[in-house]
Amino acid sequence: MALNPYDLFDIRSLLTEEERAVQDTVARFTDERVRPIIGDAFAEGRFPRELIAEIADLGLLGSSLPEEYGGGGLNGVSYGLICQELERGDSGIRSFVSVQSSLCMYPIYAYGSEEQRMRWLPDMAAGKVIGCFGLTEPQGGSDPGAMKTNAKRDGGDWVLNGSKMWITNGNLADIAIVWVQTEDGIQGFVVEKDFPGFTAQEIHKKMSLRASVTSALFLDNVRVPEANRLPNVKGLKGPLGCLTQARYGITWGPIGAAIACLDEVLAYTKERILFDRPVAATQSAQIKMAEMARRITLAQLLSLQLGRLKDAGNMQPAQVSLAKWNNCRMAIDIARECRDLLGGAGITTEHAAIRHALNLESVITYEGTETVHQLVIGRELTGINAF
């Protein structure tokens, strides 16, 4: 019996019935609703907002949170499969869901009060309230502890000043989870878009994540009530805990991008005739595609085991770093190789490889650059911090 070229080790057989059902549902959505429009959306630099309601109706926003807050109560592996299938369509679609679920809904659930959970999470799960996550600053990048954005107490309120950069969903968002320096350490606040002094400015001229909204946030004496402060965490462990959740999903997402590229190039090389035979009949093409399948298989096994560790409560941040590093590098290398096998046709958005390759330039950078994750593993191995 022929093997599935995108699942050579039959990893699907290791999934539960519920996990397979989740994957199939999101795969259908990606094939029927995302892939037909995403090339044009990327070329136009437009996030397809018309998909938000459908994404919410499928239960993909906050899917791992308890049902009482609008979530689906799904396990970590199911969330990973959601990310994989969405990114098979486009990194921008997966980023939208990742930010809403892992970077906005998760901190409200994990660090917020019960009043905050009930106020925002059900509407966020329904897609009625969109969030963004404000941590990175123009001068900060990989060093979030150096943030300059600050908050000072003023009676029963806090006054926030500063700016954040490279914020996914920024101009879509109704609320922003903003992390700032205070006299009591780093704290998180829910900043509502209509608070005076708060503005979002969309970043244009991007060559990556073009089907995604990326913004800069500015806070000019923004008065935020104490009721909007996340009360249950202080210090960098707050935002870093959110990033661990999001990075976990990112370990799965690039697998989908790589599968999309391999799927496209398998079909193309069988049809493309050069020197009287299909490109797929050449040894060089087969070796390249075999290498892609090998790396996809290793990434699949890595993320599945990471998901099982997560669901058992045993996942460590360094393990997430290893998987994010490996799987993003795998996917960007495959996308570039597929673009090459497509020849001149590979540079247009009629094909997926160049779009995925460009998107993955962002995915390999955000939420921890490749170098940062390498140094995390280096520290784990040696016990020496080389940052």
UniProtKB/TrEMBL annotation:
Cofactor(s) of this protein: FAD
Keyword Zinc included in the entry's annotation: no
Pathway: Amino-acid metabolism; lysine degradation; Amino-acid metabolism; tryptophan metabolism
InterPro entries xrefs: Acyl-CoA_DH_CS, Acyl-CoA_Oxase/DH_mid-dom, Acyl-CoA_Oxase/DH_mid-dom_sf, AcylCo_DH-like_C, AcylCo_DH/oxidase_C, AcylCoA_DH/ox_N, AcylCoA_DH/ox_N_sf, AcylCoA_DH/oxidase_NM_dom_sf
Entry superkingdom: Bacteria
Phosphoprotein keyword on record: no
Catalytic function, reaction form: glutaryl-CoA + oxidized [electron-transfer flavoprotein] + 2 H(+) = (2E)-butenoyl-CoA + reduced [electron-transfer flavoprotein] + CO2
Keywords: FAD, Flavoprotein, Oxidoreductase, Transit peptide
All copies of domain Acyl-CoA dehydrogenase/oxidase N-terminal, residue ranges: 16-128
Gene3D superfamilies tied to this protein: Acyl-CoA dehydrogenase/oxidase, N-terminal domain, Butyryl-CoA Dehydrogenase, subunit A, domain 2, Butyryl-CoA Dehydrogenase, subunit A, domain 3
Family in the record: Belongs to the acyl-CoA dehydrogenase family.
Protein known as: glutaryl-CoA dehydrogenase (ETF)
UniProt source species: Pseudoxanthomonas gei
